[in-house]
Design brief:
428 residues; alpha+beta; Rossmann fold; Dna Ligase, domain 1; D-amino Acid Aminotransferase, Chain A, domain 1; 3 domains; 8-stranded antiparallel β-sheet; 4-stranded parallel β-sheet; 15 helices; 26% strand; globular
């Protein structure tokens, strides 16, 4: 049998599971890096032994030279496809797949898939509802716009960061000035310098997480979760709980229809998509988006609840496109096999993690499915202000909804200094 190979650009976050999944299909992987250094937040998870080869650019390589460098390194070999492993790899994956003549979303709308301000403009141009916004590096301009639009509260964030980094909810002039002072001029977690900030109207409604996989323009929604937040002093709000919805619930159809129109506006016809969508009294509107896999998720727990997960379906789409498309058309709306909760732990304390004394009790909950992204031993646990500072995530899965809710309440009753053994800096 002919050997098969693929390229993964920046196989970090959930993308780090793709090499082993593709290996199940007999597909080897070459890892291409969009920058010379792996972003700090992903460094501890990367294992170069999973790849046939790792292609790394030199420091400070310009974008046009970066593409040519990788094309030269890949030349003379046959690849089935190119896929982005995480947010930082989206634009390079678009370019390489297009230049190599492989399944692609093309480069015409690449920047809109990464830049939140351009994303909203693309939706608006296509007649798809989008958020009112202003891009600026000047707080007084933002304050003037906020008054002109009669917004009681706005959201200010970087245009292309990730993990809810530096998202501010602003109701006063002082709030706006503080947000701009933090964001503008800062190098964010994915290594980009924030030259401007993005101000958007605050949507009041229910938020949802929607994942999908597309193949040659045909889109299949793989799951929908409600997304609930809690207010945190000095941080706006943070995710607290996601609840898996059934595939035939009416709001799932509304969200699916909206996402399909959004993907068309962004010219996304192949591969995974991850969207954060609000529904208010005017309907659905996109608030955040990634042309890639959802990050920080338990593939194990989601498979328990759904029979699949966003990563395995994405791998199937590329490894066996005919089989994937036939199955997904026959399947219809996704089926929820069990009720599921994704619980983000929230901490109001800090310290160096020395152990997990409460993990045994968490694993003893009847609905326990998985625990991920716990702060590693020896590293700092800090008070929660965004997704990246969440101390850990616990998945609960159960067919018995009463048991599931009981276990959720038991989990929430645990203090973080019970779950984690914490020491102060310098303490032995």
């Amino acid at each position: 049998m002919k050997e098969r190979h693929c390229v993964i650009v920046d196989a970090y976050s959930t993308g780090r599971y793709l090499p082993e999944e593709f290996k199940r299909y007999g597909i080897g992987t070459v890892h291409v890096m969009s920058s010379a250094q792996i972003p700090t937040i992903f460094r501890s998870h990367f294992d170069d032994r999973l790849y046939d080869e790792v292609i790394r650019p030199s420091e400070c390589m310009a974008d046009d030279r970066l593409v040519e460098h990788h094309l030269q390194a890949l030349r003379g070999r046959e690849f089935d496809f190119v896929i982005a492993g995480c947010e930082t790899g989206v634009e390079l994956a678009d370019c390489l797949s297009e230049r190599l003549g492989l399944p692609t979303n093309g480069t015409a709308m690449s920047s809109a898939r990464r830049d939140k301000s351009r994303l909203a403009e693309a939706l608006r141009s296509a007649g798809v509802r989008s958020i009112s916004q202003l891009v600026s590096d000047n707080a007084e301009d933002v304050i003037s716009w906020m008054r002109q639009e009669h917004f009681d509260e706005i959201v200010i964030k970087p245009v292309n960061s990730t993990g809810t980094e530096d998202v501010f909810f602003c109701a006063t002039d002082a709030d706006v000035r503080r947000a701009l002072s933090v964001i503008v001029g800062k190098t964010n977690r994915v290594g980009s310098l924030n030259r401007v900030a993005l101000a958007q109207e605050k949507i009041n409604g229910q938020q949802y997480t929607v994942n999908a996989v597309s193949i040659e323009g045909e889109t299949f929604v793989t799951e929908v979760w409600t997304y609930d937040t809690v207010p945190i002093k000095g941080a706006g709000s943070v995710c607290s709980l996601e609840r898996l919805l059934g595939g035939k619930e009416p709001v799932v159809q509304e969200l699916s229809d909206y996402l399909v129109r959004a993907l068309q506006a962004l010219k996304i016809v192949n591969g995974p998509a991850h969207a954060e969508i609000f529904v208010d009294d005017r309907g659905a509107v996109l608030v955040d988006f990634g042309a890639r896999l959802q990050g920080t998720m338990s593939t194990k727990a989601r498979t328990m609840a759904l029979g699949h997960n966003h990563m395995t379906l994405t791998a199937w789409r590329y490894a066996d496109p005919v089989g994937f498309a036939e199955y997904m058309r026959r399947r219809g709306p996704y089926m929820r096999r069990a009720h599921a909760l994704c619980v983000s732990l929230i901490s109001d304390v800090g310290g160096v993690v020395a152990g997990y004394p409460g993990l045994e009790a968490i694993r003893g909950l009847p609905s326990f499915a998985d625990a991920i992204a716990f702060v590693p031993i020896g590293q700092n646990l800090v008070p929660t202000i965004d997704l990246a500072s969440t101390p850990g995530i616990v998945y609960l899965v159960n067919n018995n909804l009463i048991q599931l809710e009981d276990d959720y309440r038991a989990l929430r009753a645990m203090r973080m200094d019970q779950v984690f053994e914490l020491k102060t800096q310098g303490q032995h």
